Amino acid sequence: MATNLPKEEVERLFREYEDYDFARTGTNATEKVELNEGPLEQFTHEMEPFLRKQGLPVRLNKGVVELISDFVVCEEGKPLSPESARILRLLGIKMATFKLHLICRWSSDDFELYKEGLDDASDVESA
């Protein structure tokens, strides 16, 4: 990021910025998500085979996707399976938080390193 903002303002922007996103496989669920038996009107009849492949107990009833029994998509604190992550995305439920991490700062006067020793175990991703 190139800017002429003061150092304190840039640090504040990085510290305060966060955006919600869909959780990926392996992420710990932040809440329990359970679907109740009955019609799933947010899905078209064309989605029924895909939903069944994701493990949902569904059937078509007069062209409407119907959940045959209650279904727990995920449990709070437990890692998401690939199927659970896909179902949450289809439901529009975002469980991940995207944050920016300021790693270093360079100006014509100096260089400052904020994060040292980034390794594979870090939650900071670099591209």
TrEMBL record:
<dbReference type="GO" id="GO:0003723">
    <property type="term" value="F:RNA binding"/>
</dbReference>
<dbReference type="Pfam" id="PF17777">
    <property type="entry name" value="RL10P_insert"/>
</dbReference>
<dbReference type="GO" id="GO:0042273">
    <property type="term" value="P:ribosomal large subunit biogenesis"/>
</dbReference>
<dbReference type="InterPro" id="IPR043164">
    <property type="entry name" value="Ribosomal_uL10-like_insert_sf"/>
</dbReference>
<dbReference type="GO" id="GO:0006364">
    <property type="term" value="P:rRNA processing"/>
</dbReference>
<dbReference type="InterPro" id="IPR051742">
    <property type="entry name" value="Ribosome_Assembly_uL10"/>
</dbReference>
<protein>
    <recommendedName>
        <fullName>Large ribosomal subunit protein uL10-like insertion domain-containing protein</fullName>
    </recommendedName>
</protein>
<dbReference type="InterPro" id="IPR040637">
    <property type="entry name" value="Ribosomal_uL10-like_insert"/>
</dbReference>
<dbReference type="GO" id="GO:0030687">
    <property type="term" value="C:preribosome, large subunit precursor"/>
</dbReference>
<dbReference type="GO" id="GO:0000956">
    <property type="term" value="P:nuclear-transcribed mRNA catabolic process"/>
</dbReference>
<feature type="domain" description="Large ribosomal subunit protein uL10-like insertion">
    <location>
        <begin position="23"/>
        <end position="93"/>
    </location>
</feature>
<dbReference type="GO" id="GO:0005730">
    <property type="term" value="C:nucleolus"/>
</dbReference>
